[in-house]
Amino acid sequence: MEKLTRLDTLLLALPWLLFTVPFQLLRGQMVEAMSVVAALLAACVLATGRVRVDLKGSLWPAYTLGGAAALYAAFLAGGLFAKATGMWWQVEAVYSSVKPGLLQLLGLLVLGVAEEVYWRGYVQGYVVVRVLGKRWWLSVVPYSLVHLVSGMPLLVLAAVPVGLVLGFVAEKAGVAASGLGHALWLYAVLYALPVPAVIG
């Protein structure tokens, strides 16, 4: 059985340091900063050779689209929850950094795929399943908790359905499928049909 190394400990601690950049230091450029952070995390874990970025089976397009649609529905419900509980300011804080343009659109693709490489490929597939021998869905715990760095409780809660849905997609259809689903969902929720425009 494989064991966690010092390198793994460093790689698991890295998001706690790096997430302060988009969530605290560059909140006005959150999308761009998060894209760079996610790309850095993905590059680090890919360099270890411990991550497999793949597509599984012929149904991966259905899992990809279904995952994106499920997350969009969950975030509409989350928007209603935010309005009802006085947390709408956190939704506005995220959307204030959205400035449609080619750079951000490319950034969304990088962000979606890179986050999946790190969180579902490395944390879920390697650390939680292979090394710890636990069920894949336990990877939702570190993925959700790292969002505490944002100072926005709503993002901590929102990370739970994201981790569960995309973790399921990665488990069934591969990390490449969850990465594409992540990017599609981000495009839908931030640009095509943003939550504030839909629920006002």
Overview of this structure, please?
The chain has 200 residues and is mostly helical. It is built from ten helices and no strands. It has one domain. Helices cover 76% and strands 0% of the residues. The chain starts with 5 loop residues before the first helix and ends with a helix. The protein has helices at residues 6-18, 20-25, 30-48, 60-85, 88-95, 102-131, 140-145, 153-173, 175-192, 195-199.
Protein topology:
Blueprint: H1 6-18, H2 20-25, H3 30-48, H4 60-85, H5 88-95, H6 102-131, H7 140-145, H8 153-173, H9 175-192, H10 195-199
Helix pairs in contact: 1-3, 3-6, 4-5, 4-8, 4-9, 6-8, 6-9, 8-9
Oligomer: single chain
Radius of gyration: 16 Å
How would you sum up the global shape? globular
How many beta-strand segments?
0
**pLDDT averaged residue by residue:** 96
Give the number of helices. 10
Notable traits:
single chain, 76% helix, 200 residues, mainly alpha
